[in-house]
Amino acid sequence: MKQFAVIGLGRFGTSVATSLYKMGYEVLALDSSEEKIQAIVNDVTHAVVADATDEAALKALGLGNCDVVVVAIGQDMQASILATLVLKASGVKRVVAKAQNDLHGKVLEKVGADQVIYPERDMGVRVANNLVSTNVLDHIELSEEHTIAEVLVPESFFSKTLGQLNLRARYGLNVLAIKRNEQILISPTADDYLLKGDIIIVLGEKDRLARFQHK
Question: 136-213 is classed in which CATH architecture?
Fold first, then answer.
């Protein structure tokens, strides 16, 4: 089974960690805040208070055995850069790092990040090659099997709730956010409706996303 770790439990990191866990994968969540760890402890496999810049602590947690580690640290650029450096030095196969701006992203790439994403600027989606599809707009590859994609809501979804559509059961896709004009609804509920022009940001396996786009 694939093993994931997410370092930094802001809105983006929390959404990715809990969605992967709901999909049935092992997820280790790390943050320096005891409060954030307590908030997520029941929604991931393991949740640990840890300093992302502490090389010994990260090695002791066995992050080198993870298939993918997402560095989703918020405002502390230095911490995200050091964590990325330590993770690659520890032998982590794939490090996906969140950047605040282009300069930060360039530094992350220099220290070994396999993928750099800009969730504040692009909702963690508009950073990769376009998929050949009328509905799937952009995507981020978290691993060889998993992706986060931005999908234009098809007409058959108009005026239906996420609960009615049940995308997780039907397609194995977890909805992280709904983008409506200039508004973004993070972690939508089953009662939220989809409207014409909406864009949903989903996390799932690539083959399931492919089946969904050709439904």
Answer: 2-Layer Sandwich (3.30)
Biggest alpha carbon–alpha carbon distance for the chain: 52
* Structural domain spans, the chain: 3-119, 136-213
Q: How far is CA 168 from CA 94, 109, 153, 190, in A?
A: 25, 33, 15, 11
- 3-119: CATH number: 3.40.50.720
Q: How far apart are CA 78 and CA 4, in angstroms?
A: 23
Mean pLDDT for 36-53 is: 94
Residues paired with 201 in a beta bridge: 150, 177
Of residues 142 and 215, more confidence is placed in: 142
Which one, of 12, 37, 16, 38, lies nearest residue 27 by Cα? 16
Residue 175 CA from chain centroid, whole number:
11
Q: Which residues of 171-183 are buried (b: 16+ CB within 10 A; e: fewer)?
A: bbbbbbbbbeeee
Q: Is the pTM of this model over 0.85?
A: no
- DSSP-derived 3-state class of residue 180: strand
